[in-house]
Specification:
Blueprint (H helix, E strand, L loop, with lengths): L3 E2 L6 E5 L2 E2 L3 E4 L6 E2 L3 E4 L10 E6 L15 E6 L4
Antiparallel strand pairs: 1-5, 2-3, 2-7, 4-6, 7-8
């Protein structure tokens, strides 16, 4: 529940159907932020593709602003529905 800063960005990966997906942006963005919530969205030139499964992972070495490490990786996945 502690806030994180911009260093968290280096610990987040996204895959689509198991392959690296790098066309995402975060909110807040930029070099300086402290937040307890981070929104991940597709970059302006792409979208979440229908029928694809996306996995967002925060690695075990991610730390909060007081230096506490996550300790184990955390992942969440979602599948975009087809229209």
């Amino acid at each position: 529940t502690n806030p994180v800063d911009q260093t968290i960005l280096g610990h987040i990966t996204v895959t689509v159907d198991g392959k690296p997906f790098t066309a995402f942006v975060t909110d807040p963005a930029g070099d300086m932020f402290t937040t307890q919530e981070l929104k991940i969205s597709p970059a302006m030139d792409t979208t979440w593709a229908a029928g694809k499964t996306y996995t967002v992972t925060v690695d075990a070495n991610a730390t909060d602003v007081v230096g506490d490490k996550l300790g184990t990786p955390a992942s969440a996945m979602f599948t975009m529905s087809a229209k």
